[in-house]
Amino acid sequence: MVILFNYLTVQCFNCIIALVMNVEGRKIVEAIIELTLTFSKMIKFHPELEKLRAVELYTLFYLLRHGPCKMKDLAQALSMTKANITHLVDALERKGFVQRILNDLDRRIVHVYVTNYGKKIYDELIEELSKLVENVASKLKPADLVIISRGFEKFLAEFSLRGEQNDRCDWWHRTSWKCTRSKTGRNW
What we know:
Blueprint: H1 2-6, H2 10-21, H3 23-42, H4 47-50, H5 54-66, E1 69-70, H6 71-77, H7 82-94, E2 98-102, E3 110-114, H8 116-137, H9 142-162, H10 165-175
Antiparallel strand pairs: 1-3, 2-3
Helix pairs in contact: 5-7, 6-7
C-alpha cells in the first residue's frame, strides 16, 4: 500500500473521486441499456425493421428527428467516417428507407432524405412503442411519471448543451486517461 500511495498524484486522486461519484451515472447508463433491450424484446417489429442492423436503425432515427442532411454532416453526427456512412446509406437506400438527392446548386453535395416508406415504417414502430409505454405508465403513480418525464427532459437538455464530440473527448481526457497509469507504468 505504501508504494501505491507514493505514486498517487492529486490528479489521480481527483480521478478516483470522480469515478466513485460516477457510480450513479453508471447505474443510469445500465438502466438505459436495460430499457432499450427490454423495448427490443417487447415490441412487434415490422418485418422490414428486423432486417436492419442497429446502426442502420439509428441512422434512420437520426434522419427522421433532424431532417435531411448532407452525407458529411450525417457522418459527423454519427461519429463515422465518410466511407462508412456511404456504405450505410447504400444499404438503407437498397432497402428503400432513404434516398440520395443531389443539390441543385452544387451537384457535389448529396443530401440524404427518408423515403415515405421509411417514414411509414418509423411511424409503425413509434406507435408500437407508444402502446408499450402507455401500458407501463398506466401502472405508475402520476407523481412518478412526472419525475421520470422531468428527468428525461433534463438529461436531454444537458446532453444537448454538451453537443459536439470534442466536448465528450475533453471530458474523457479530463477524467479518465490521465490517471490510468502511475509513474511506474502500472494501471491503477
